[in-house]
Design goal:
single chain, Growth Hormone, Chain: A, 19 helices, about 85% helix, about 0% strand
């Protein structure tokens, strides 16, 4: 029995709340972090973990929850996700120190992973094939909307009132989503014969957590035996996860055979991983650069950050249309080259840069992202059979969030390798610095090394993208 048009619109409306909330609560924080870290007197590591804890929860739980929704049902996980997200959001706004905020951001990320992992599956299951593209078009627009408006809302809030409202402002949206999903969503038939991959899920979660924890704490505290041990253990566990998934194919949450036997699928996922690893840190460090070194207001900072999102939103549908005509390889590769050039152009900026200087570079990177994202996604999804679309989507999403998590972790490692810890602490906590000129130059040295190394990572991704076939 086909669902009514009214129910289809209800599903799109409810899932759109999820699509807006997950990127919104990531981007709204980026511009506000300098204010938050100063208010709570947060350390460098505590500050990094505000966005990182949220992203790490998304990365680690996306695949396990997608599989769990096949077994336990979509509606239960989706509504619980809204509830967890709401609790995490409220408590983040009430946090009294950095550790509390980091903890509640992880809880918020867990809730976001529930609604994001299941939202796409609900759309796929509800909409007939000939209307699914339209439904995902609405979903994609909601994602871009959340990404775009986040910095501006964050900048406005911290300019006129306390930073705590950057969290409270999203509570009504998540509560509306929760109530509507309970009232209107229908539970489709549950495939009870499927078994959950508990071992693979535990290996994935513990492996990623150990790697990211080891890198971030080792980068600031110092590479002592504990930090090195935790990082190595994480790598070993993640390797065991890949081996386990390859051996127990009938239970797996990750289809390793696709990565082994499908060059287009593997190249597209690796390109996405390297691309997000190479550029995603930018909004975090640019916020501190603009507000601490250039002394710009949060609102002006948000205008620079939003220029990246707007250019990406404009270019993405055009590049998606072009990829249907000329293929994805040229567009995706060109996009990564533009991102690499944009990062290299940040290197000359010093203590006298204007908002125009920064915005033009962000626009170039946004154009590059717009050229890369849609064609690369189309190439990855088009490289698998219809019965593998869900697995392909989940894998690509995991690569995206893994890249974003690694971006912040690796960037923190690079910057802390060139900037003395006492200067990093003073910049991130907003304390007075005895010699502002010297501290600024040392911080800029760290940023310049970061831009150079990350542009090399993007360049490797561009080579990978260029080597795949024309489709």
């Amino acid at each position: 029995m086909n669902p009514s048009k009214r129910y289809l619109w209800i599903v799109s409306f409810i899932t759109s709340f999820a699509a807006i909330l997950t990127p919104l609560d990531s981007t709204i924080v980026s511009v506000s972090l300098p204010v938050i870290s100063k208010s709570l007197n947060m350390s460098y590591v505590e500050t990094i973990w505000v966005p990182l804890g949220y992203l790490l929860a998304l990365t680690a739980l996306l695949l396990p929850l997608g599989k769990l929704s096949d077994i336990k049902g979509r509606k239960t996980l989706f509504t619980n996700g809204y509830l967890i997200f709401t609790i995490g959001t409220i408590m983040s706004g009430l946090s009294l120190n950095g550790i509390e905020l980091d903890f509640w951001r992880v809880i918020q990320g867990i809730g976001a992973s529930f609604i994001l992992a299941v939202g796409g599956a609900i759309i796929t299951e509800t909409y007939p094939a000939n209307m699914r593209g339209r439904a995902f078009g609405i979903w994609s627009f909601a994602v871009y909307l959340g990404t775009t408006i986040g910095p501006v809302i964050g900048g406005l809030i911290v300019s006129v009132t306390t930073w705590r409202y950057i969290f409270f402002v999203t509570v009504p949206l998540s509560l509306i989503g929760y109530i509507l999903s309970i009232i209107y969503l229908k539970e489709p038939k549950i495939r009870s014969n499927i078994k959950m991959d508990y071992v693979g899920s535990i290996l994935l979660i513990s492996g990623l957590l150990s790697i990211i924890y080891g890198i971030t704490f080792g980068s600031f505290i110092g590479w002592n035996s504990f930090s090195i041990f935790i990082s190595l253990v994480g790598l070993i566990i993640f390797g065991l996860f890949i081996l386990y998934e390859n051996y127990y194919k009938e239970l797996s949450i990750l289809d390793v055979s696709l990565l082994k036997n499908n060059i287009m699928f593997t190249a597209g996922n690796l390109a996405a991983l390297l691309n997000y690893t190479g550029y995603f840190y930018l909004s975090f460090f640019i916020s501190f650069y603009m507000q601490r070194i250039l002394n710009f207001s949060p609102l002006l900072t948000s205008l620079a950050l939003i220029s990246l999102s707007i250019s990406m939103v404009i270019i993405s549908p055009i590049s998606g249309w072009l990829s249907d005509i000329i293929g994805s390889r040229i567009l995706a590769t060109l996009g990564m080259i533009l991102i690499m050039i944009g990062l290299l152009l940040f290197i000359p900026l010093g203590t006298k840069a204007s908002i125009i200087d920064i915005s033009l570079r962000m626009i170039l990177i946004g154009i590059g992202m717009g050229l890369f994202s849609s064609p690369n996604t189309s190439a990855v999804m088009g490289s698998v059979s219809r019965d593998k679309l869900g697995v392909a989507s989940g894998t690509l999403n995991m690569m995206r969030f893994l890249g974003q998590s690694l971006s912040l972790a690796v960037a923190s490692l690079i910057v802390s390798s060139f900037v003395p810890h006492n200067i990093l602490s003073s910049i991130f906590t907003g304390l007075q610095i005895s010699s502002f000129e010297i501290s600024s130059e040392l911080f800029l040295l760290g940023l310049r090394r970061l831009y150079l190394i990350s542009s090399i990572i993007i360049g490797i991704g561009a080579i990978l993208s260029a080597l795949r076939n024309k489709k």
